Structures are given as C-alpha cells and as structure tokens.
Amino acid sequence: MLTRNENKEILSKSDKIIITTHHKPDGDALGSSLGLYHWLKSQNHDVHIIVSSDFPTFLDWLPGRDAVLIYPDDMALCQSLIDEASLIFCLDYNALSRTNVMEGVLRASTAKKYMIDHHLDPEGFDDYRLWDPQAAATAQLIYTFIEDCVDEVSEITPEIATCLYAGIMTDTGSFRFRSTTEQVHEIISKLIRSGARNWEIHEQIYNSSTENRLKFLGHCLLNRLEVIHEYNTALFAVSKQDLEQFQVTTGDTEGLVNYALSVKGIRLAALIIDRTELIKLSLRSIGDVPCNEIARKHFNGGGHFNAAGGSSEGDLQSVVHKFKSILTEYNEILIK
Fold this sequence. Notes:
6-stranded parallel beta sheet; alpha/beta; Diaminopimelate Epimerase, Chain A, domain 1; inorganic pyrophosphatase (n-terminal core); 18% strand; 6-stranded mixed beta sheet
C-alpha cells in the first residue's frame, strides 16, 4: 500500500485520468468508480469513467451516472480519452481481460495503471496497487484511498458517501456476508455521517424490480430450481429461451443464485445461464466450500472463496452435467 505522500505525488503528476472497471459493472464496480470520480473531480482533476458495457438499471440513480461513458457506444471519443490519459484507475478487477472489449486498448495505453481491487491472484498489469483480498468490497478500498489522501474527512461529500455505501452494501449482501467486519461497519457509520441516506439506497437498489423481472424470478423458482440433496447443492439452469420469454435485461439475474443458497441445508449453489456466446456460471457457498477453486479448475473462472464465476463453451445441458459430475470431488466438504 502506497503512503499518503506517494499517492499525492502520483495524482499531482496526472493531468488526465480515466477510471475503468470490469465488464457488466455491478454495484461495487459502479459505486467505487463513481465514488472515486466525485472525489477526483472535487480535487480539480480532469477525469472520465469508461466502461465496456451497460449495467443494471437499478444503478441508474447513482450520483454522476450520466458521466459514465460506454466504450462500444462511443468508441472514437473513448479511444481518444484513453490515448490522452496519464493515469488509469483499474477498479474491481485484477486482469485486463475482465474489461472485455477494452482489453486491447488498455494494454496498448502508455498511461500508468493503478489497480484498486480485492480479488485473488492479480495478473500484474499494474504500476501501482491498493490490493486487499480480505476487503469486503472495492468501494471499501476506495474509502481507504480517499481517507489516506485527504486532510479533512469533510472532503467526503454526500455524493461520494452514497456511491461507496452502495458498493459496499451490494458486495456484502446487505452486510450479511462474513466479509462484513467491524472495520466495514465503522466505514459505513462514517459514510452515513457524511450524508449517505442508507434507507434510500436500499430502496433504490432492492425495490426497483420490473414486472418482467419478478415474473422471471417466479418462473425460475418454480421451474428451474433443482436441489441435489445428497450433495447439499442447488442450482438454476436458465436457457436462452427463458431469457427471451421474460425479456431479461442486464441486472435481472442479479441475486438469483442466492435463492438457491437460501434453501435450508444447502452449502453450494450455482446459477448456470445460456448467454448464447457462452454458458455463464455464478457460484455461491457457505463455510469451507471453495467456489473460487471450482470456478478456476473447471470453468475458466475465479473469484472469492465463497463467491466466484466462470464460463464454458459447451451447451447448457453439458455444462449442467459437468457441474454435477464434479460434486463427488467435494463430497466430504459438501456433506458436513
């Protein structure tokens, strides 16, 4: 971790700054990006956020959302801004491949890269790093970064506090995951004191479902949930026809895997979705069931110990069969 003076020196030499995050940004990715954006703007930096794709509509209300540029929608402008940048913040990802269509242009950029992240096994593309795999969220690390750089905590405005609160809240499952430490609660307390209206943030994110999303959820619970009792495992297998039938958009599958994990006695849950070009997997677990190992060894992925993701080029049925077949490998852990 760099010192306050080192961070201040890096920022003092950076006249044009870009903030990036991973493909299909979630609450932590967008919340941490916008929180850092607001702070850098308050310090009179020339800063832009560029992302590789759209993101869930339930994040559209976040302060500063209109400043977010989507690379495929305006490639010429985004390319120009990246070419001119002297510093690129890489938030909530540890490998440039996670930026999808932006990977090539980011690798080619001569700008210094500052990775702020909490995922395991960083690729090593960065020049500077604030990395802590024990952190609950990248938004937590952004708070630490800002706090280490400022002379007065009052520089954390209500807009910054709101964005960082949203990031931490979503990545901790509303503060119920084991990553929610005493330090996390202390930071949350400071964010509320700085103007984050916690009840409004919860309302905006969790009570903004479309009718189609609720019908899709009901369909999955009734028709796509499979419980494998002998391995204390549950899964949803969602076809591309399901996605089309309910007009599923970005963010509509968010949190679905947690319903499988909520079944009494379940220790491992999977959401397996046919995204046409690839089969995508989201894994969640409790206790000592290693989601990150399963994703890395079998599905070209990775992530946190109890929350990870991956993908496969097979068809939906073959991927479901493969997932079930590896459960024997983790039999002793699953049936504890």
